[in-house]
């Protein structure tokens, strides 16, 4: 195995890491969304999402049905 990498590869990796750190800062600066978890609309949406996910998992497990 060749464990040595070219300087260009190392430089590119360093730039990616800097970019990721910048994205984390942007995410922290974004407005925090407050969702009312007791609202009936939220509960209805959660049940719909869960149902679709369960159907997806069932099809994934048994694709013939």
Automatic annotation (TrEMBL):
Superkingdom per UniProt: Eukaryota
Annotated region (Disordered), positions in chain: 1-39
Basic and acidic residues biased stretches: 15-28
Compositionally biased residues, Polar residues: 1-13
Stored PANTHER family: IG-LIKE DOMAIN-CONTAINING PROTEIN, PURKINJE CELL PROTEIN 4-LIKE PROTEIN 1
Family named by the database record: Belongs to the PCP4 family.
Identification of the protein by name: Purkinje cell protein 4 like 1
Protein source organism: Gorilla gorilla gorilla (Western lowland gorilla)
Name of the gene encoding the protein in the UniProt record: PCP4L1
